[in-house]
Specification:
By secondary structure, this protein is of the alpha+beta class. It is built from eight helices and six strands, in the order H-H-E-E-E-E-E-H-H-E-H-H-H-H. It has a four-stranded antiparallel beta sheet with strand order 1-2-3-4. Strands 5-6 form a two-stranded antiparallel ribbon. Helix 7 runs antiparallel to helix 8. The termini are far apart. The C terminus is likely disordered.
Amino acid sequence: MSKGDSLTQRWLRQNVQTYPNPDLVYGHADAVLLRHPTIRPKTDVYTYDDGRTQLLLCLHGLLPISFRGASYNIPIAVWVPREYPRTPPLAYVVPTSDMLIRAAPDMDISGRCLIDYVRNWERKYEGCSLVALLDAMHDAFSRQPPVYAKPKDVTAQQQPPPSRPSSSAPDYTARPPPPLPVERHSSVPSTAHRTTSPAPPPGGPPPLPAKPGSAAPGASPPSRSTSVPVPHAHASFHAGPPVNLSTLAGELASLSQAMALDAERLRANQADLLAGAPALRDEMARLEAVRDVCRGVAARLESVVGAGERNVAELRRKGDPEVDELVCSTTIVHNQLINLVAEDNAIEDTIYHLHRALNAGRVDLERFLRTTRVLAEEQFMKRALIEKIQTGMQLGGTPWAVPSGH
C-alpha cells in the first residue's frame, strides 16, 4: 500500500466515526476507492429537500463507462447518509458546464439517480453496498448515458458564471446544480453518437473530443480541460428551430413565483412554530409541577401503606388476645376500679341469696345477721374506695352508680 493510500484510509477512518456504523461505512467506502481509482472521498454539507443540512461523507469523481464501443467518464457524487445502510445513498450525476442532464425514468432532471438498485435498497439493505451501487450505475449508464453535450448555439449564448474557478478540472465539490433544460425536439435520436466538430469561434467553449486524450482534427487546443467527454447529441439541434428565449423567460418567471409562494408558506410555518414554542414550554413546566406533586403523594401513600403492612404483620405475630385481656385497662388505678366494682356486685349478689335462704328456712336468723354484717362492712369499704378513685380521676357526668346499701 502506498503512502497516499495509507493517508486516504486514515482520513476516511477518522471522518466516518460520526456514523452509527463507522466500521461498515469505512469498509464499503474503502472498497469503492480500491475498485475505482477515479473516485475520491470528501466531507461536505448536504442540503435536503426540506431545508435540513447535514455534514455527510461524499464519494465523488469520474465513473468510466463504455457506450457503442467508446469510453466515456461520467462525473458522479454519492452521498452517504447517517442512517446508512438502512437508508440508501444519495447518488447524483454532476454535469459540467458543457453538459446537460438527459431526463429519463431513472434519472431526475436535477441529476438524482433513481435506478432500480436504489429503489429496492430498503427492502434488502443487508445485501447492498456502495460498490454494487456503482456497478449498477455503470450498467445503467452504459445502456443509456445520463448526460449529453450542450449544443453549440446554446453554449455560445451562455457565459460562464464569474464565480466558477478556472481550474484544469471540473469542480465536483459543490452540491449537484439546479435542474438544467432537457431535450425538447423529437428529432434527437435515442442514442448519442460521437461527432467531430469544427473549431469553435473565438471566445466560445471548446468542442468535446470523441475519446479521452484525442483532439478533433482542425480544432485549436482547448483553453480548459475537457477530460470528461460525453456522448455528443448536438448534431440534431442544427436541424431544429433555435431556442425560444421568451419561453424560457416565462418558465423562469413562473418558477420564481412558485418559489416565492413556497418561501412565504415556509415563513408562515416558521412563525407558527416560533409562536408555539412558549406555549410548549409553559405546558412542559405545568406537567413537571403536576409530576412533582404526584410523586410526593405517591411517596406519602407508600409510607402509609408500609406502616399499615408493618402493623398487620405485628398483629399476626402476636395472635388472638385472651378474653381476660380484653377487660384490662391501661393503668393500675383503672384496673383497681374494675376489680372493686366487680367485688361490690358480688357482695350484693351474696346478700340477695342470703335473704332467699333465710326466707326458705335454710339459714337461721343468727347466722344470717352475722354474715350479713361482715359482708356489709366489706361492701362499705369497697364503695368508699370506689368513690375516692372516681373523685381522683375527675370523671365527668354522673359518678359511678353503686347499689344502695341494705
